[in-house]
Write a structure and sequence with these properties.
10 helices
Length: 298
C-alpha cells in the first residue's frame, strides 16, 4: 500500500522532462486472497501501512467540500418562520427513484421566472428539479454516468414540466409528500427555486437541449453538481428554505429526503397509487385530510 515515504517521493516523479523514472519506489502490488503482497523494484524494504476504507475517504471528501462551501450553490433562503404544517398553500415533494423535486403552484413561480410562461402554458402547477447536466438528461441511466456525475463537479440544469390537472398518468413517482405552507414559507421556497436558474445579464433564463417537447424542458442551472451538491441536497435546501429543520448536506439520496419527510409531523404522505388525479385548489386543499382535499384519488 502507499505510505508516507511514497507520498514524499511524488515530487521526484514529475521533475525533469516530465517522464517518470525507470525505477519506481512504489511497490508493485499483486492481489492475493489475504491482501496485497508487495515487491519493490529498488526499495525492497517498504514499510507496510493499513488500508484506508473507501468510506472513510468519501467521508473526508464530503467534510472538506462541505466546510469549504462547495455544497452551497444555489444557497438556501432563510425562512421567515418554522414549518408547522398548517399553512394554506399546498406544495408536493415527489421522488422518481434517483431524483426528487417539487410540484408548486405555477402562478407565483411565473412572476419570479417570467421566462417560464411559454413552457407552462395554462398549467396550474409545475414540477421542478435540479441536477447534473448530462446525467439528468440521459435517456438511460448507466453506472458510468452516475460515477461521473458524483465524482466530478459538473454543470447543472433545472428541469421544468407543466403539471396538468389530470396528474395521475403524468407523474410516475415512488412517493409523494404534501406540505401545507404559509405564504411566507411558499415565497421563500419559490425564491430558492428561482435562484436555481442561471441568468444572463438581463435576467433571462437559457433553455438547453433535452426534455420531451410540449411536456418538459431543461434550463441552465446555477451552481455545479458534485458529490456534496446533488439533486437531492437541492431538494433538501428547498425544504430548509420552506422552514423545515434539516441538514441538506446529509440528504444525498432520494431515500434520505423522503425518509425525513415520513417522520415529520404536518406532512401528508401518499404512495404512488394515491397520487391525486386532480390537484385541487391550493387554498382549500391544505388544512384537511388529503382524501377530502384532493378529489379523484385512485
Amino acid at each position: 500500500m502507499i505510505g508516507w515515504k511514497h507520498l514524499q517521493a511524488l515530487p521526484r516523479l514529475f521533475r525533469g522532462n516530465g517522464a517518470p523514472p525507470v525505477a519506481s519506489r512504489f511497490p508493485i502490488g499483486v492481489r492475493r486472497s489475504h491482501g496485497y503482497r508487495g515487491t519493490s523494484v529498488d526499495a525492497p524494504s517498504v514499510r507496510r501501512c493499513r488500508a484506508v476504507p473507501a468510506g472513510a475517504i468519501l467521508l473526508a471528501l464530503w467534510v472538506v467540500a462541505t466546510l469549504t462551501g462547495c455544497a452551497g450553490t444555489p444557497p438556501a433562503v432563510v425562512p421567515d418562520s418554522p414549518f408547522q404544517g398548517n399553512g394554506r398553500h399546498g406544495v408536493y415533494v415527489v421522488s422518481h427513484g434517483w431524483h426528487t423535486g417539487f410540484v408548486v403552484p405555477s402562478a407565483p413561480l411565473r412572476r419570479l421566472v417570467p421566462g417560464l410562461d411559454s413552457e407552462l402554458g395554462d398549467a396550474t402547477h409545475a414540477e421542478l428539479g435540479w441536477g447534473d447536466a448530462v446525467f439528468y438528461r440521459a435517456r438511460e441511466i448507466r453506472s458510468g454516468l452516475a460515477l461521473r456525475a458524483v465524482f466530478t463537479a459538473s454543470e447543472s440544469v433545472v428541469h421544468v414540466a407543466p403539471v396538468p390537472s389530470d396528474a395521475y398518468p403524468f407523474i410516475s413517482t415512488e412517493g409523494v409528500a404534501r406540505l401545507c405552507l404559509s405564504g411566507d414559507q411558499l415565497s421563500s421556497l419559490l425564491r430558492y427555486i428561482a435562484g436555481s436558474f442561471q441568468r444572463s445579464e438581463d435576467g433571462a433564463i437559457a433553455p438547453v437541449p433535452g426534455g420531451a417537447p410540449g411536456r418538459s424542458r431543461f434550463y441552465r442551472g446555477a451552481g455545479h453538481y458534485s458529490l456534496t451538491n446533488t439533486c437531492n441536497t437541492w431538494t433538501a435546501k428547498g425544504l430548509r428554505s420552506a422552514g423545515l429543520d434539516l441538514s441538506p448536506a446529509l440528504k444525498l439520496t432520494a431515500g434520505s429526503v423522503m425518509g425525513y419527510l415520513r417522520q415529520q409531523a404536518g406532512v401528508d404522505w401518499s404512495d404512488p397509487l394515491r397520487w391525486p388525479a386532480v390537484l385541487g385548489d391550493t387554498v382549500r386543499g391544505c388544512g384537511v385530510p388529503t382524501e377530502r382535499a384532493l378529489p379523484g384519488l385512485r
